[in-house]
Amino acid sequence: MSRHRDRRGRGMRGPLAHPEVPTMTSRAQAFDDLVLDVAHRYEPVLGRRWAQVEFAVEEVPPSDPASWEEGVPLARLWPAKGRLPARIVVYRRPILTAARGRSHAIIVHDVLVEQIALLLGVDPHEIDPHRP
Prior knowledge:
Blueprint: H1 27-41, H2 43-46, E1 53-58, E2 75-78, E3 86-91, H3 92-99, H4 104-120, H5 124-127
Parallel strand pairs: 1-3
Antiparallel strand pairs: 2-3
Helix pairs in contact: 1-4
């Protein structure tokens, strides 16, 4: 009994590279990894609060901006509420659009520094003194 997987008998095609090979990482996954890498740099700054903060990435912000926001937000902070931890959400497409050929890693860094400073109620220069 022959086992044909398609009508030409060629069988199913497999991936071009194994999943652990970097070529299989999507752009969205690479952006998510960048956000987590930058966030982990500030784990010592947050100290014990690190476990009480969630970092997330979404494609675009919701269509209903807050009354104080002008333009398209690059990230948002939701403070802790009851049992829910504080949450910092970074928006991928607005950051990539704002980068316009520059490194979006710099923008991600600046956005996370601003959001962490907002969470702690301090000036962003206290979080990263080398920030321009």
